[in-house]
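Interim report, section 4.2 (structural modelling).
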Amino acid sequence: MSKLLEVSNVRVQFGGVVAVNDVSFSLNEGELLGFIGPNGAGKTTMMRAITGVVTPTSGSILLAGKELVTLPIHSRVRMGLGFSQQLVKPFRNMTVLENVALTVGSHHTGSPLSALFKVGREDESTRARELLELVGISDAADADPSNLPLGYLKRLEVARALALDPTILLLDEPLAGLNHAEAHKLADMIVDLNTAGRSIILIEHNLGEVMRICSRLVVQDNGNKIADGDPESVMNTSAVRAAYLGENTDHAAA
Amino acid sequence: MLGLSGYEISLITSMGIAVIFALSLNLITGFCGQISLGHAAFYGIGAYSSAMLTKAGMPLGVGILGAVIFAGLVGLAVGFTSLRVRHDFLAITTMGVGFLFIGIMRQWDFVGGEMGVSGIPGSGLGKPGFMFLVLGFGVLTVLFSLHLKRSWMGYAFDAIADDEDTARVIGLDVSRYKLAAFAMGTALAGLAGALYAHNVRFIDPESFGFVESITVLAMVVIGGIGSVFGVIIAAALLSVLPLWIQFIDEYKLLLYGGLLFAMMRFSPGGLAGLAKQILPKKSSLKASGDTKA
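Predicted structure of the assembly:
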């Protein structure tokens, strides 16, 4: 399997606080990778470094061999990085369908000048409706996002990320705030997307679902990578058990 | 001619200029969500540019074109500041631009300094002819605004106006869109300013002060931020009322302030929002949202 994303020695420091400490990992093509860690592990900071919200102090992030670190967020997105955010942020001045259709039409919005001369949204709306069906919220296509429950909005985030037809899908805590049934349903949908060939990084707190659906786990704690491998062996390592359960081990220097 | 008196022709001309000016700000503030408290500066740049070019012997067309280009270029430069600052700081920055413009114009003797520019050439079209020229530009501005709103640029502006960070996440180059909004909006303000200069044929720095910036913002807010037809109606009414009913002119600011307060209290969506509340709703629109909540 070829490596789609290669994160090498990424360090993110805010003043004297090291949020991510020389972390390296990779995502292989077609893989569903779980990126986990306890609260304050720096998972979201790592995600933000990949997407461009945060600039790493040092290190390299390659997407299909191309360096991302110096690029702005929109360029990374257009290179094939689709992501759904931890806090759902639909455009509240648009319907659910319009939220997704705008993203489907990203080929029209690459340049303001070409966007000015392009009208008509029929094809994009059709594709957006298909994506809403795929994530199971097509019944809310014409709804105002402000009126929708969290489960719908989480799926809207995923549909919007998929609308870019990304090479890699980064999902930041998509199951957070959902009840058991909703989380299970959304996790199944993530598996379906992966089975259809989508390479996915799933940052998640819900260990049960992560263990159930991910083929590989990377674990981060206090900004350090402490494990990388198949879910069962990773969860059995002493460092991971210590990070989650507070067991006293000698991994602290890792 | 047309059965209109000279006074009525003046009213319609002033109304047309105000509509272009208000729609120019609507493009920046209404469509793209970038607040500007110094928009009159670009109106002034257009007015001074066309006045000086035509006084130097250039034809009216060159004067107007120069006004559009100069105002658009300065707008582009100001737009760069909008890339770095948050909304509230942008309001202060643009207000500063407005004061800077007045300060510079007062000091530059070659544009008349405090005394302003007099003897600005007329259009050569006569009053009715100039009214039609203004109305022609007004119609083009309205059509451009309506097209922009329907285009993918308008769609992208909607996203940026709502949430810039999320707009980036879906691949929008927010900086370029904001620059485009500033360049187009200020260029249109330049057009309105040029028409104003050739209409009144005398301009001074005070014609483009903070009160003018607030007045045009009031037109946009009262009309309904982002609504083309609401802003047209508000601009037409607010520009013509003080001319139509003379005593209102003395209480203009009181009137605008009162209307702004009333709109914010009772209809934050402006006249356009009010119309939506009053007019019967189409039952099929956006019905499913409530059932999902």
